Amino acid sequence: MGGEVLIQLSGLRKTYNSGLPSEAEVLHGIDLVVGRGEFTALIGPSGSGKSTLLNVLGLLEQATSGSYHLTGRDVTSFSDDERTRARHAIIGFIFQFHHLLPAFSALENVMLPALIGTSNGSGGAAALSPSKMRAQAAELLDGVGLADAMDKKPHELSGGMQQRVAIARSLMLSPRLVLADEPTGNLDTHTSDGIFELLRRFNRERGTALLIVTHDPRLAARCDRIVELVDGLIAADKPNAAS
Q1: 3-state SS assignment for residue 4
Q2: Angle at 27 between CA 211 and CA 99, to 5 degrees
Q3: pLDDT digits (tens, 9 = 90+) for 72-85
Q4: Is there a contact between 109 and 132 (Cβ–Cβ < 8 Å)?
Q5: How far is Cα 108 from Cα 177, in angstroms, rounded to an integer?
Q6: To bridge 122 with a disulfide, which of 26, 78, 85, 192 should be the other Cys (CB 3.0-4.6 Å)?
Q7: Residue 30: which of 10, 47, 55, 15 has the closest Cα?
């Protein structure tokens, strides 16, 4: 684990439909610490709470109780505006389905987090001029092997290429933490291996911490740490000696 603690959860719980007959607690008291530069797989059966936990970590949903410190700050009582600013300043997201804007080029899709950050004043994005945004997005696309596809629209790219655009987009604001929800779940084995190596390279070169939700045992086995979630509780958390 790196010296800087990025995520610290203590007794974190998440309940939906509180007070209603349909009330359901999905996370039952999670304790978790993730440090700078860690490369962690989050595994577990469907319905175990992995995506819910990722949404809470990504400040997309609020925990019902317990504490969540992100880079040392208690985010549980943040306002919506504070959550938005923290999310843009610290976290990058990669999803199974790329969520690229079809009318935008690959370059414009990568620039999107900085454009959004500029419009709402979050993170350090406002300091980026349009020319710097374009240069940084172009450098990231070059880094994922898409220097020749910057002007292409998503429909002109293969699934693997679209996922590489999504990875470049997730790194646009140089996040300290990337949360990835089944980033290779929709790809063939060869493309999945390439995506994994790309994530690993950014992890090593930039010190970016990654927490990857995956059902792929091959991918999990290549991460440095494996956290297993079962029925809303951490059933195992161990370093992976084989990685």
Answers
A1: coil
A2: 45
A3: 999 988 888 888 88
A4: no
A5: 22
A6: 85
A7: 10
pLDDT band at 119 (very low <50, low <70, confident <90, very high): low
Place of tokens 């994922």: 144
DSSP code of residue 19: T
Q: What is the pTM of this model?
A: 0.85
In a domain, 79, yes or no: no
Does residue 2 lie within any of the structural domains? no
Question: What CATH number did the domain enclosing 149 receive?
Answer: 3.40.50.300
Residue 50 near residue 235, CB atoms below 8 Å: no
**Using alpha carbons only, how large is the chain's radius of gyration in Å?**
18
Q: Please check whether residue 105 lies inside any domain of the structure.
A: yes
Distance CA 34, CA 6 (A): 6
Q: Provide the 3-class DSSP secondary structure of residue 160.
A: helix
Best CA proximity match to 114, nearest among 77, 142, 139, 78: 139
169 lies in which domain range? 38-62+86-239
Q: Do the Cβ atoms of 106 and 146 come closer than 8 Å?
A: yes
**Residue-averaged pLDDT of the chain:** 87
